[in-house]
Amino acid sequence: MRCRSCAFAPRRCKTRSLPASVRWRRSWAPTMRPLSRPVAKRRRGEVVEPVNFNAPGQLVIAGNKAAVERAIAVGEARGAKRGVMLPVSAPFHSSLLKRAAERLAQRLARVNILSPAIAVLHNVDVAEDPAPDAIRAALARQAASPVRWAETIRAFAARGVTHVIECGPGKVLSGLVRRIDENLTTFALNDRASIDEALAAIQAA
Questions:
Q1: Which pTM does this prediction carry?
Q2: Tens of pLDDT, residues 97-116
Q3: Which of 10, 105, 139, 203 is least buried, going by the fewest C-beta atoms within 10 A?
Q4: Is 10 exposed, middle or buried (0-12, 13-18, 19+ CB in 10 A)?
Q5: Helical packing angle, 32-42 and 65-77, nearest 10°
Q6: How does pLDDT run across 17-40, given as a tens digit for each residue?
Q7: 193 in helix, strand or coil?
Q8: Coil/strand/helix, residue 1
Q9: Using CA atoms, how far apart are residues 157 and 155, in angstroms rounded to an integer?
Q10: Are 5 and 103 in contact (CB under 8 A)?
Q11: In sequence order, what DSSP letters do the residues of 124-181 get, joined into one string?
């Protein structure tokens, strides 16, 4: 559904806009405001924004391709370890996808959503709201709003969570979790053996 909604993003978003991952030498990336200001001065009307706060020292920015490239150059001049353009099809979680978010909201309005039986934190605002309408709104907003992943994991820990399980191929999220809070135990479920290991650890906790 989100993919179909993103098809309604302006064509220039899909051909001239991209995200990039930026790593910083310091413990946390600085605010994007001073980084984006000199970029904005050069090209009025272009967008570059933080879209994923992944972990201490790593964030993802997105916007018009030229603005993102300039932001990387400015960031590296101000202490970034490196900036890497990401091979994806659109500037996800940026304001350039506002139209797609509106389209997604229209589609979600027709989807039957039940209140969850367990607590669910929305990445868009790190808040818990089990009302179906609130869930629809959070999902739609997330399409054009930053993912506050580091804050979400810290909120987990503050609520007493001790184990974080990543479902699906890869271990990227598990690695980010450990960088955010080394006291959390992580499991990445890639095969039957990893599922059995996670289940055993949780049952013993």
A1: 0.81
A2: 999 999 999 999 999 999 99
A3: 203
A4: middle
A5: 130
A6: 566 666 655 444 444 455 545 554
A7: helix
A8: coil
A9: 5
A10: yes
A11: TTTEE---HHHHHHHHHHHTTS-B-HHHHHHHHHHTT--EEEEESS-SHHHHHHHHH-
Q: Pick from 123, 65, 59, 55: which is nearest to 89 by CA?
A: 65
Sign of the CA dihedral 196, 180, 81, 74?
positive
Q: Is 185 exposed, middle or buried (0-12, 13-18, 19+ CB in 10 A)?
A: middle
CB 178 within 8 A of CB 184: yes
Tell me which H or E stretch contains 29: none
- CA 186 vs. chain centroid, Å, equals 19
Nearest to 163 by CA among 198, 124, 120, 127: 198
Question: What tokens appear for 134 in the block?
Answer: 């609130």
* Amino acid occupying residue 41: K
What residues contact residue 160 under an 8 Å CB cut-off, 6+ apart?
none
β-sheet bridge partners, residue 186:
164
Task: State phi, psi for 3 to the nearest 5 degrees.
Answer: -60, -45
